């Protein structure tokens, strides 16, 4: 009887015993054990655990810097929230990123923290939280360090207005 211990970054350790086999049978068993351990590790990194329906939808806003060199400069933010995945996309003037986020509900706020950068600028991982959505009786606002203080539209008391629609 042989033993195989698979260790994964973090605290998950898998120990299994298997009958001694020859050549490809042994390799096949080890490959299956590694695949299973990878599945277990990935399942522990769930982005969100069921975002409440009140928060699900598409959030969008445009942040303008005004006229720069004869062009309207600014950037668009879109946050898509389903029950099990959240992505934020920023595109525009000197701005391009796609991040996956995790969510935590705190009263009338949905706190969105960085999970991973999919593409573009990787500034989001240094922000905690990356975004905060606020629901004020069906009107939605956003707060984030992504939004520069020199955008033309100034924030309301709760943050910048953001539109919400169905996905």
Automatic annotation (TrEMBL):
Name of the protein: Uncharacterized protein
Natural source organism: Pedobacter metabolipauper
Origin organism lineage: Bacteria, Pseudomonadati, Bacteroidota, Sphingobacteriia, Sphingobacteriales
């Amino acid at each position: 009887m042989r033993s195989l211990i698979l260790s994964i970054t973090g605290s998950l350790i898998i120990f299994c015993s298997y009958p001694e086999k020859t050549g490809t049978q042994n390799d096949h068993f080890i490959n299956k054990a590694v695949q299973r351990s990878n599945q277990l590790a990935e399942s522990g990194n769930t982005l969100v655990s069921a975002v409440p329906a009140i928060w699900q939808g598409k959030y969008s806003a445009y942040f303008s810097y005004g006229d720069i060199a004869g062009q309207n400069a600014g950037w668009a933010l879109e946050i898509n929230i389903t029950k099990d995945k959240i992505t934020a996309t920023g595109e525009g003037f000197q701005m391009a990123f796609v991040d996956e986020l995790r969510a935590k509900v705190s009263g009338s706020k949905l706190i969105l923290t960085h999970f991973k950068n999919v593409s573009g600028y990787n500034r989001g991982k240094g922000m905690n939280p990356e975004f905060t959505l606020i629901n004020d009786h069906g009107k939605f606002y956003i707060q984030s360090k992504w939004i520069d203080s020199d955008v033309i539209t100034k924030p309301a008391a709760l943050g910048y207005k953001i539109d919400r629609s169905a996905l």
